[in-house]
Amino acid sequence: MIEKILLASSGPGNTETMFKALLEIPMIQRSQVTVLKVVPPKLMASTMGSQIADSEQQLAETISRLGIESSKVTPMLREGDPKDVVCKVADELDVGLIIMGSRGLGGLKAIFKNSVSQYVFQLSSRPMLLVKDELYSIRPIKRVLVALDESDMSKESLKVAIDLTRDVKGSELVFVHTLSNLRNSVAEAINANPSTDPVLAPAIAEAKRYRINYRCVAPEGKPGERICQLADELSVNLLVLGSPDRRPSIAKGLPDIDRLLGGSLSDYVRINAPCPVLLTRIASN
């Protein structure tokens, strides 16, 4: 269960709309939410007072638009570089999910354009929900695609997807077995008996346990491309994918080179997916 959420406020837009959609989910309704507004540092102290007052007003307006129950929300105003502040506050509060907007940039382009979401994606070990600013419409969370393999990260993704959809009437889970070298065609894989698949069988059992509708798909070709194509073809509202942290403990404060250059599956999907992407995390030692 996601008990604490950090929403990095960037004003009206898809991120707020996505959060409102999440508020329709019973599990999210029980979560404590911190809405964070970051004030960039100013060289002139004389302008700081008015800037803080404006930011406080914007923060109050954001909370009003979101419609969160007052006992469940905490406004927070911090000064500093947004990239650093989001990571620091997430650790301070020990949140179970960071929600923030994204321009869908990756690799060196994101670094050169000072992407906050790319930086947080690089260095935070917290689960993240990334919402592109303007590239798609936000709909109620009914159909959730879960990318699965044999990893512990995959098990965490399944757990999160079950928690989000178990109490949502008419919800559906789309289980995607991310095989990169599938011998059969996609049609043959869909028609095969998924209950014998070591990856899909546990997911099916969990869906049946909570009486959640489901379907199974095994993508043919490159997993990242097929996952994004399936999300588009099936009109998926949310994509859940594991994003492992491969860095050793000594390098936790440094970027992951695969992510930096866009070489990981999770990086490809977060950039190209036609829907919001929830990246689950289990940090490695």
From TrEMBL:
Chain ranges of the UspA domain: 1-132, 141-281
InterPro entries: Rossmann-like_a/b/a_fold (IPR014729), Universal_stress_UspA (IPR006015), UspA (IPR006016)
Transmembrane segments: none
Superkingdom in the source lineage: Bacteria
Cleaved signal peptide residues: none
Family named by the database record: Belongs to the universal stress protein A family.
Protein name: Universal stress protein
